[in-house]
Specification:
alpha+beta; four-stranded mixed sheet; 2 domains; 5 helices; Glutaredoxin; elongated; about 150 residues
């Protein structure tokens, strides 16, 4: 799977430049493989990006601004959704990737899994005790009926 980041190499907006740098810098820090696709110098990239950003994610003028992030052909989101995922330690999920062992989200998932396993073990134990109690009650009822 290749993460595609659509950028504008010659943007006049410092806000867009900062957002692009933030996305690229974060992906590099996490050692996530990605490809930069320039929409300023490549018309095909620009058209592909515009056509593949879902309608509900496009701004009111209909033209999505960079950075736009995809996992292969699957739209992940724009800078705002990337930033939210970053704040929630959910960048791997945002990108449709499996978190590596030891990542904050992976550790949290493993802890939740362990808690779930403990809860199920307790539920199984309670179910076994309830079953034994029912069997004992049935045996007592049968014994009292025989008397």
């Amino acid at each position: 799977m290749v993460i595609k980041v659509f950028l504008a190499s010659s943007s006049g907006s410092t806000a867009i430049k900062k957002k692009q740098q933030d996305v690229v810098g974060f992906l590099e820090a996490l050692k996530i493989d990605y490809t930069q696709l320039d929409i300023a110098s490549n018309e095909e990239n620009r058209m592909w990006m515009r056509e593949n950003v879902p309608g509900e994610k496009k701004p009111t003028n209909g033209i999505p601004l960079p950075p736009q992030i995809f996992n292969e052909e699957i739209y992940c989101g724009d800078y705002e959704t990337f930033f939210e995922a970053k704040e929630d330690n959910a960048v791997y999920e945002f990108l449709g990737l499996t978190p590596p062992p030891g990542s904050k989200r992976k550790v949290a998932e493993e802890e939740e899994q362990e808690e779930g396993d403990e809860d199920r073990a307790e539920e199984d134990l309670v179910s076994e005790e309830e079953e034994e109690l029912r069997e004992l009650e049935e045996e007592e009822e049968q014994a009292s009926e025989e008397d």
